[in-house]
Fold each of these.
Amino acid sequence: MIPKRFGDVFKVGTCRDLNRHCQLTSRSASRISQRIEAAAHAFSTTASQKNKETMCRPSQNPIKPPLRLLLTHESFNSTIPAKDDTNKLLQHSPYRYGLGGPDSMSTLLTVSVKVLFLFALEHLVRLAIQKHSHIDPILNVERNRHILARHLAVDFGSLAICCYIALRNRHTVCGELITYMKARGKSDSMSDEGTERRVFQYHPSSQQLLCWFFAYQTKNMYDTIYWNDGIEFVIHHIFAGAAAWGGMFPGCCHFYTIFYMGLSEISTAILCLLANFDDQFGVVGLEQVFPKTRVVLGALFVASFIVCRCIMWPVVTHHFFKDTSKALESKNPLAAGRRKFLHLLRFCCFGLSLIQLVFVAMIVQIGKEELTKLMS
């Protein structure tokens, strides 16, 4: 038997051990609970930071848009909302998505279809000329029919479409430039505050025009090589095609696209018709068959060239170099991936401006020869 005093001592010791054990267990549970809460808080903070980083940095794998044909003006509308609060435009590669319009894959598909359309149109015009070859024996020559079909269907047809798009959208895209020229430089519509908007703003009509112009340059490059027009034409088509594609991807200067790829090509479209009468690039003897037509086309070309290339071109080019110069120094995020292309555009524009002077000298020389013929 356990003595009473010993039993009392045993009971007291046991109670103390139990209390101490409970206190230790309670402290351990409290520590474990605190650690669990700290781990949960750290996990939630890390997840939140990762979500913010994902939203802020450019998406490495953006959702691919569906491949589609761009056959209407509406199909070139921007896929970026007007109020881009999340900087969605900066999250995409400019060489794939440009300034927010249709992506490059849909554009390439559309260009391919348009090039095939130009081939088909050229063939149909060739058949139409063959059907009416009884008009003059000169049309019985197959080479002559091919030359006429090329200049009428491909060259004039493509440039006519580009000019139509430009004329239709001239006020909505570059209305302030037209206002400035009408006011003879006395308007402040071309102020420095609008530089970044004129260089980096997206315009669906300009994208549509660039798409057509690039398709034309692609077909024209094929024709130039096939007909052996010369290396100078190959170089011209390379630079013109590069300017057109770069205007879409990475994309810039849509404001000036309406003039350079549209309005200024009015004189070129007339020149393509006039080229049919050239002994080197046209049909030999066609001048004798349609003498008055050649004179009318020549007069229209000279008039349009003076207006588009001699009067409007220097004014537009002055503002183009002024705006692009400031855009190169801009801290706008859109300028970061487009500086190299802006340098290329400036180089092309400078070269084409020099060519204008050569064309003026040629026009004056040809004009003197034509006047001599008329006087005699």
Amino acid sequence: MAGVSLKCGDCGALLKSVEEAQEHAELTSHSNFSESTEAVLNLVCTVCAKPCRSKTESDLHTKRTGHTDFVDKTSEATKPISLEAPKAMDESHEVVDASGSSSESQEMIVPEVDKKLLEELEAMGFPTARATRALHYSGNTSLEAAVNWVVEHENDSDIDEMPLVPVNAKVEAPKPALTPEEMKIKAQELRERARKKKEEEEKIMEREKEKERIRVGKELLEAKRIEEENERKRILALRKAEKEEEQRAREKIRQKLEEDKAERRRKLGLPPEDPAAVKPSASVVPEKKSYVPIKPVTKLEQMRECLRSLKQNHKDEDAKVKRAFQTLLTYIGNVAKNPNEEKFRKIRLTNPSFQERVGGLKGGVEFLELCGFEKIEGGEFLFLASDKVDMTVLNSAGSELNSAIVNPFFGVL
């Protein structure tokens, strides 16, 4: 029986023609070939028409694509092998079969491509049909050329259709320009290039996010600055108005006293008093009382600064700070509502609940001391004497605590 294949004596591979044996020898450096009567297996996938030459290759194809149906066309493709070297086609490009007669039928089959390059493309996630089409039309030369072809033709309507060529057309696929080792290096370079591009895009995105965070932070700080500036202006305007009102009241009282004094001197028959003698006393009166309206404002500012310091000292513990403010507000509110109840004016410093909520935070006890509480019995208790209960101070403290709780910008600067 005539041989139907060539068998490599070094690795046992079955080859259909002398051309394939030559290519196999170039790729593997094997040179021991013999004629064999064993036909080359030809299993064709019914879904994508991919030919497989062994059961292992068909199993691998099934694992990658999920295609499980194959048609055995081994007998159809089996024919006696010619041991003559391939001859160049004549000018008419007439295709002659083994018996010398011209082929009349033009059956179309999937072109053969470099299987290693095809496996590389499938491992990168390309469908089998698209990878085969890319290798065929890019000249079957390299992985990079196939990827570039896919990028350039990704919008083609038939990009996922398996390419077909005439079965008798002896179109020899160009040999790869790179060795297997070079192709692996090239594929690694492509993957590395894609990874670096992705990292660069992520860095750009992260920089944009950071810029946005900085912009929002600046806007919040500017809003806080404007709010505090307006608050300072409001307090200054209030103090100025109070001072002017007090000055007008003092002036009215002084004028009334001067009129009464002049009236008494007139009734007693005394001469009018020299106005120059009144000036020193007039200057002493405002000097003596000028400090009175400033005192509550100073206390208010001390309370605000104490609360701001408490929040700054525990800026990473917002929940704990807010709970401390609410607890302080409860203490102050109880005293303001029940000033005669001693139980609301006396706090045990060693109480675990007090230590957890207020005493353990720097600035909590100091705020209560600003409200009038004093340490007694060797520092075991905080006590507010009934005669030192100042409703103005307590109301101011409650207002500052409420502002610190509801104002999200409190203590930012």
Amino acid sequence: MKPPLLSCVLGIAVSSWICFKLFHESKPKKIVRGSVPAAERTMRLPIYDDDNDEELIVETRDASPAHFLTKIESFSLFPKHWIVKYETCEFEAGGYKWRLIIYPSGRPYSPSGYISVYLSLAETSSLPVDWEFNAIFTIFLYNQISDNYLCFRGNERRFNKIKFEWGFPKFINKKSLKDELSGYLVDDNFVLGAEVFVLKTQRVIECVTLLKPPSIDLRTRDWKISEFSKLENAWISDEFTMSGFNWKMELYPKGDFSSKDRAVTIYLVCVSAGNFDARQKVKTEFYTRLKGKSVATTIYDVGKLSHWFTSSNATCWTSFISLSELHNPKNGFLVDDCFNLQVEICVQVLSRP
């Protein structure tokens, strides 16, 4: 049996050794800079972007930025001079002019303790009215000790007249920047760079307009074709305007090639379609009617027809009435050898680039 004093001394010694081991193993291990293998230098860090919670790709590389580089001397004097925002000179990439915007004390309403850096289009007045494109960009921070670059790259971004500035509100922590061993602020010099790659797309933009039908008197037109039985060739109306488009009617009294000597063939021609863009089209419903002595009386109607008029398909035809029906006196379709034609046109949909 051990003496009480010896047991007490041994207990204290063991307890001290256990505490020493726990304390030593809990201390953070020192990281030797430059010892990370190249394959492990790329990492994904979750940060807040302007609008979305998204991941930012951060990696190191030796090659310098392809499009822009700026060196800021005496960087720490920005806040002392009350300069909260600095815009760099312009540079060109992908056919557009850009600049970096640096917030030395962080962008307004962004998390404190960080420097914010953004990429912005520098000139938009010369761009088309509805300009828009996507781009992938990288902002570089030069390590002046290891002579390489820390690269910050986000997801593909959409630039337009509403949103023409994207970047990183938490670009780098101020404490990390001021760490002498970091290499990012040496002799108070701060070096940034940028690369911008605009994604060229062959996007087609279409605008579709659905139109309200006008009153009946604004969408109908009437013709009285006299001495109808003496017509040998096509009867063609004058051009007329309806729903903002120019039209004309073509009537073949003895049929065309598709119904020769069998039926009267009527064509509705959209004259305006000859000037349509290749992707422009107009959806139209129309009726062709044979009227009696009074315009108010319809004696023959083939019903509604529908057609998409385009630059390559500007006509729609119907085999209107058989010649035997038309010339049968019992039917009374020809009154005093007059063919009273009416067309009703309703433009419903306009699709254009």
